[in-house]
Write a structure and sequence with these properties.
Layout: E1 5-8, E2 11-14, E3 24-27, E4 32-33, E5 42-43, E6 59-60, E7 64-75, H1 78-89, E8 98-103, E9 109-127, E10 130-141, E11 146-148, E12 152-156, E13 161-165, E14 175-178, E15 185-189, E16 192-196, E17 205-208, E18 213-216, E19 219-221, E20 225-227, E21 237-242, E22 246-250, E23 253-254
Parallel strand pairs: 2-3
Antiparallel strand pairs: 1-2, 1-8, 3-7, 4-7, 5-6, 7-10, 8-9, 9-10, 9-11, 11-23, 12-22, 13-21, 14-17, 14-22, 15-16, 15-21, 16-20, 17-18, 18-19
């Protein structure tokens, strides 16, 4: 049986206890909100002066708020329960952003979050040798999208178009990797062309078509990439052509 599991910042929360995991952090009945879907959108209403209705303005996505409430803490001893409660209360205490990944029968999906509240409580109750506590944790993801934890990689020979598919429910931004990169090259698709010129040759280049940044061996190199940026619409595929051999990384994206 595949059990829902959510992990991040060194903590693991499971859907239900199993024979292999009788102690730990668990999600209570109907205790997970905000992970599946976004119930609302965001828009800036602008009334038409001296006229009917409003201006037609874009509708955007809000931040994603993920809540575990109620949550259950089970410890094999009072000491073990106390350790788990301390872990909950310290979750994200430094304010840093981290990857929160959830999986069950499907492929893992990741959202990047910060903790805005976390409380673990000892219920002073014991049953069957297991000590019980409760918890409530809330995360906020400024970027509401969820991403495939591992990308699909498509090898791209020089000058040959390769088809890249978007399998999520939201457009994805391709990432291009060029091993042993030359100083100049181009990336083309029906949506436009992105050109890199004057780069330091060698090393692994990564080109992020979300923002046009070019990295060499993990370090951002400024002012060497210019041109069009694009997404691949959900449920479609797009031909991408590299002027040099490389690969296209596709992180399927959901909301």
């Amino acid at each position: 049986m595949n059990v829902f599991e959510m992990s991040g910042d060194g903590r693991v929360v499971r859907g239900v206890p199993t024979s292999d995991n009788l102690e730990g952090l668990f999600i209570g009945p109907n205790g997970l909100q905000g992970w599946e879907g976004l119930p609302a959108r965001r828009r800036e209403a602008l009334a038409r002066p001296l006229a009917n209705g409003e201006y037609d303005v874009p509708v955007r996505l809000p931040a994603r708020v993920i809540t575990i409430d109620p949550g259950v803490i089970l410890g094999s001893s009072r000491k073990d329960l106390k350790r788990l409660i301390d872990s909950v209360n310290g979750w994200g205490g430094g304010g840093r952003r981290f990857a929160l990944t959830a999986s069950d029968d499907d492929e893992p999906r990741t959202s990047y979050v910060r903790v805005i509240s976390a409380e673990g409580v000892d219920l002073r109750r014991q049953a069957g040798g297991i000590h019980h506590g409760s918890m409530r944790v809330q995360f906020i993801a400024a970027d509401p999208r969820q991403y495939a934890t591992m990308p699909r990689r498509t090898l791209a020979p020089a000058g040959a178009a390769v088809m890249v598919e978007s399998r999520g429910n939201f457009p994805l931004h391709p990432i291009i990797e060029i091993p042993d990169a030359p100083t100049s090259y181009t990336i083309s698709s029906p949506a436009g062309t992105f050109t890199v010129t004057g780069a330091t040759g060698g090393g692994l280049h990564q080109i992020f078509l979300r923002n046009g940044r070019v990295h060499r061996d993990g370090a951002w190199i400024k002012n060497i990439g210019r041109g069009d940026l694009w997404t691949i619409a959900d449920g479609t595929e797009m031909p991408i052509t590299l002027s040099v051999a490389g690969r296209v990384l596709a992180y399927d994206t959901w909301i």
